[in-house]
Design goal:
Blueprint: E1 7-9, E2 16-18, E3 23-28, E4 31-34, E5 44-47, H1 50-55
Antiparallel strand pairs: 1-2, 3-4, 3-5
């Protein structure tokens, strides 16, 4: 069995999936930003759905909450 590309895990629900199927987020200037190209420098956080994306900021220390 051949892997279907890089695998990542949702930070919130821990569901694993192909990197291209998940949304990547990075922290820039204390704010969480969607990384559409999945190439931004820094630590990446992944979410599998809009519901998990809404919870994601609560799981990361050091964010500026607006």
């Amino acid at each position: 069995m051949v892997a279907a590309g890089p695998q990542r895990r949702c930070r919130v629900c821990r569901k694993a999936g192909a990197k291209r199927e998940l949304t990547r987020w990075t922290v820039a200037a204390g704010m969480l930003k969607r990384d559409v190209r999945q190439t931004a420098p820094g630590r990446g956080y992944y979410s599998c759905s809009e519901q998990c994306a809404g919870i994601l900021p609560k799981t990361i220390k050091g964010l500026v909450h607006v």
